[in-house]
Amino acid sequence: MKRPPRLIARTLTMTFVTVAVILSVVFVVLTLEVRGRVRTAEINRLGLTERLFTTLEARRQQEQLATIAIVAENPTLKAALDTYFAESSFSDLPADHAASLRQTVSVEAEKLATLTGADVVAILDSTGHIFASAGVSRDLWAPGQLIDTPRNEASTFEGVAALAGGTFRYVGAPLRLIDRNVGALVIGDGLDEEYARQLAGLAGEDVVIAVNGSLVASTMANDLGRDLVQSATFLSDDAEDARAETEGTLTLQNQEYAVRTLLASGPARVYTLASVGAATEAATGEALWALGTLALGAFMLAGFGSFWLAHTLTGPIDQLAGEIGRMATSRDLRRPLHPTGTSLELDSLTEHFNELVRGVAVAEAQTQEAYLGSIRAFAAMLDARDPYTAGHSERVSTLSVLMGKQLHLSESDLEVLRLGALLHDIGKIGVSDAILRKPAALTAEEYEQLKLHTTIGAHVLRQVPFLAPHIPIVELHHERPDGRGYPLGLRGDEIPLAARIVHVADAFDAITSARAYRPGRDTETAVVELKRNVGTDFDPQALGALLAVLPRTATTPELVGVPVPVHRIA
Known about the structure:
The protein has helices at residues 6-71, 75-90, 95-116, 193-203, 222-231, 239-246, 276-330, 344-384, 392-406, 411-422, 433-436, 444-451, 453-462, 471-476, 497-512, 523-532, 540-549; strands at 120-124, 130-134, 157-162, 167-177, 180-190, 206-211, 214-218, 248-252, 255-265, 268-275. It is of the alpha+beta class.
């Protein structure tokens, strides 16, 4: 992505920041105002829900109490219960008769459970212990458990029973036979997850049920339910006092909730709560949509205006900068910049820049020429130490470049190859003349001294940063594909291609050039020698390039004098 001009970026940034600050202030004010209104609305709505629930629950309880008062007059149920306890107190009741009486009571209880649809219908004896139970939760109301019911003369009663397996809200009526209390009939509904879901459906909000300060059911995440229960207090059994404990708002897990107490009975509490944050988001959604549309329009208008203004001012500068960037990338200093014609100042700047570039181009050409001349002079000085190797580095360089072109190397790689080949023997500056000019074969020790010229040359080039690209050629031009070369013993493609090319060109020139201890050989002999060692001493790819360019060496001025075969070399 093209980087925008500096002025455009600054103009757009300042415009967008200004618009964003204004919209942010509006958003904050709107959010705070809406949040306060929504908090009040949620509290009032939960209060309305509480009153509705209280009214419906009172009606339901009245219906249940009326039903149980009627059902408690069941003569069969009371007679069976009275007979059971009367005969048990005066004599040993036969087991079969006792079972029959208990079965009679259980059957009547099942009928009542079916009739009322309650979770449990229980028959209590005169001491408050469960005698029989029926309904889906009868297993939790096992015979013998004590239910703490009111001991007054009321015709009906209600309460909460906290059993081992669950908590139930119940209503009941005493079972009286003539003037004696023979037991009680209790109808209960579990304060469980199902009850919480039913209340949540009625209230339209989440419901949390707690007993004795512990969470027993919730329609929201349990951790939030536990936090609510821990935040509430249980100081009063009075319903009105209990409702005052948690009315208002609470902060649970960094979120504000409006809370109301739907039910407070003994140790049981039923709460309904609504997220003020969620309600705020819903209430502000429409306003934010309008604000967002306004913001988008403001940003688009501001952006268009800012871009047009900045582009009008910076368009010509951007064009000039682009041309300068392309010139710097291509390093082509020969093409001048064209005046934009938009302003006298900019055209004057363009002309002065062109003059500066022309001066830089001339200086660069002179520096390059001096650089190449110095390298050639240095290579010639090295060759001059031995009259038999005069011109060797120049010929190896020229031949290497021809081979590189045959292998389709890039211009930059060819330039590295040209200068690297010129300097390939620079390390011989550290080898004594006695070894370099020795007319006979070298001893093993002398050969080891000669081999050091590769590492010496690399060390010399490392002292000159701009010669770094040529180090691999200087250091590795005596490596062999079979790994028996020096100084590192590299194999095959581990050796840079440029070093493999120079190795072949160096060997060819060495074979065809005269030495103090032998005359120069012809091209055919050199080619046979090179082919005989291809794959071991010489790289096949580099040798193939040499064979392809040898016919052209006769027309290359730098290679005049190099023997060339009359017939085509295969």
